[in-house]
Amino acid sequence: MNFATPVCLGLILAGSVYGAAFAEGAKVDIRGNISIVQKANPNNQGVFGTVLIEGKIEKDTGFDKASVRITKSTKLLERKDGREVAIKFEDLKVGQRVEAAFDGPVAESYPVQTNAGRIVVLR
Q1: What is the pTM of this model?
Q2: In the predicted structure, residue 39 carries a pLDDT above the cut 80
Q3: Residue 89 Cα distances to 70, 77, 99, 123, angstroms
Protein backbone atom coordinates (compact mmCIF):
# COMPACT_ATOMS: atom_id res chain seq x y z
CA MET A 1 0.00 0.00 0.00
CA ASN A 2 1.43 3.38 -0.94
CA PHE A 3 0.89 6.78 0.67
CA ALA A 4 -1.89 7.76 -1.76
CA THR A 5 -4.13 4.85 -0.74
CA PRO A 6 -4.91 6.08 2.82
CA VAL A 7 -5.42 9.64 1.56
CA CYS A 8 -7.88 8.50 -1.14
CA LEU A 9 -9.65 6.24 1.34
CA GLY A 10 -9.97 9.18 3.76
CA LEU A 11 -11.51 11.39 1.07
CA ILE A 12 -13.94 8.63 0.09
CA LEU A 13 -14.95 8.09 3.72
CA ALA A 14 -15.35 11.85 4.29
CA GLY A 15 -17.56 12.03 1.22
CA SER A 16 -19.62 9.11 2.48
CA VAL A 17 -20.12 10.71 5.89
CA TYR A 18 -21.22 14.03 4.39
CA GLY A 19 -23.41 12.31 1.81
CA ALA A 20 -25.14 10.21 4.47
CA ALA A 21 -25.70 13.20 6.74
CA PHE A 22 -27.22 15.14 3.86
CA ALA A 23 -29.50 12.27 2.86
CA GLU A 24 -30.90 12.11 6.39
CA GLY A 25 -31.35 15.88 6.46
CA ALA A 26 -30.20 15.98 10.08
CA LYS A 27 -26.80 17.62 9.80
CA VAL A 28 -25.97 21.27 9.25
CA ASP A 29 -22.30 21.82 8.47
CA ILE A 30 -22.37 25.63 8.63
CA ARG A 31 -24.81 28.37 9.56
CA GLY A 32 -24.09 32.01 8.86
CA ASN A 33 -24.45 34.89 6.43
CA ILE A 34 -23.62 34.90 2.75
CA SER A 35 -20.76 37.35 2.19
CA ILE A 36 -20.04 36.62 -1.50
CA VAL A 37 -22.19 35.29 -4.34
CA GLN A 38 -20.26 34.49 -7.51
CA LYS A 39 -21.87 33.17 -10.69
CA ALA A 40 -19.99 30.42 -12.49
CA ASN A 41 -18.59 30.76 -15.96
CA PRO A 42 -21.35 29.73 -18.43
CA ASN A 43 -18.97 27.08 -19.82
CA ASN A 44 -18.79 25.41 -16.40
CA GLN A 45 -21.69 23.04 -17.00
CA GLY A 46 -23.46 21.73 -13.95
CA VAL A 47 -22.19 24.50 -11.64
CA PHE A 48 -24.32 27.62 -11.07
CA GLY A 49 -21.80 29.40 -8.86
CA THR A 50 -20.21 29.68 -5.45
CA VAL A 51 -21.21 31.35 -2.20
CA LEU A 52 -19.01 32.20 0.76
CA ILE A 53 -20.79 31.59 4.06
CA GLU A 54 -19.40 33.12 7.26
CA GLY A 55 -20.71 32.33 10.72
CA LYS A 56 -19.46 30.78 13.92
CA ILE A 57 -19.09 27.21 15.05
CA GLU A 58 -22.16 26.20 17.02
CA LYS A 59 -23.12 22.99 18.85
CA ASP A 60 -24.62 21.52 15.68
CA THR A 61 -22.16 22.90 13.10
CA GLY A 62 -18.52 22.18 12.33
CA PHE A 63 -17.30 25.18 10.35
CA ASP A 64 -17.24 28.97 10.66
CA LYS A 65 -16.38 29.80 7.04
CA ALA A 66 -16.98 27.83 3.84
CA SER A 67 -16.84 28.40 0.11
CA VAL A 68 -19.52 26.15 -1.35
CA ARG A 69 -20.27 25.35 -4.97
CA ILE A 70 -23.90 25.31 -6.04
CA THR A 71 -24.45 22.55 -8.61
CA LYS A 72 -27.43 21.01 -10.40
CA SER A 73 -27.76 18.55 -7.54
CA THR A 74 -27.80 21.22 -4.78
CA LYS A 75 -31.20 21.65 -3.14
CA LEU A 76 -31.85 25.36 -2.71
CA LEU A 77 -34.65 26.19 -0.30
CA GLU A 78 -36.09 29.06 1.69
CA ARG A 79 -37.81 28.50 5.03
CA LYS A 80 -41.10 30.43 5.09
CA ASP A 81 -43.92 30.02 7.60
CA GLY A 82 -42.46 26.74 8.85
CA ARG A 83 -42.22 25.28 5.33
CA GLU A 84 -39.31 24.97 2.97
CA VAL A 85 -39.93 26.14 -0.60
CA ALA A 86 -37.63 25.75 -3.59
CA ILE A 87 -35.66 28.77 -4.81
CA LYS A 88 -33.13 29.43 -7.59
CA PHE A 89 -29.45 30.34 -7.48
CA GLU A 90 -30.40 33.90 -8.47
CA ASP A 91 -32.39 34.20 -5.22
CA LEU A 92 -29.21 33.91 -3.11
CA LYS A 93 -28.06 37.36 -1.95
CA VAL A 94 -25.24 38.81 0.14
CA GLY A 95 -26.37 39.24 3.73
CA GLN A 96 -28.89 36.38 3.82
CA ARG A 97 -28.68 34.05 6.80
CA VAL A 98 -28.39 30.45 5.62
CA GLU A 99 -27.52 26.98 6.75
CA ALA A 100 -25.81 24.48 4.51
CA ALA A 101 -25.10 20.76 4.41
CA PHE A 102 -22.08 19.69 2.40
CA ASP A 103 -22.11 17.00 -0.26
CA GLY A 104 -18.85 15.23 -0.95
CA PRO A 105 -15.26 15.69 0.10
CA VAL A 106 -14.17 18.87 1.86
CA ALA A 107 -10.89 20.51 0.84
CA GLU A 108 -8.83 21.11 3.95
CA SER A 109 -8.21 24.79 3.35
CA TYR A 110 -9.42 27.92 5.06
CA PRO A 111 -12.11 28.53 4.28
CA VAL A 112 -13.04 24.95 3.49
CA GLN A 113 -14.20 24.32 -0.07
CA THR A 114 -16.84 21.80 -1.07
CA ASN A 115 -20.11 21.24 -2.91
CA ALA A 116 -23.36 22.18 -1.22
CA GLY A 117 -25.86 19.37 -0.96
CA ARG A 118 -28.46 21.68 0.53
CA ILE A 119 -28.72 25.36 1.35
CA VAL A 120 -31.67 26.79 3.26
CA VAL A 121 -32.27 30.55 3.47
CA LEU A 122 -33.49 31.27 7.00
CA ARG A 123 -36.19 33.86 7.73
Answers
A1: 0.79
A2: yes
A3: 8, 10, 15, 17
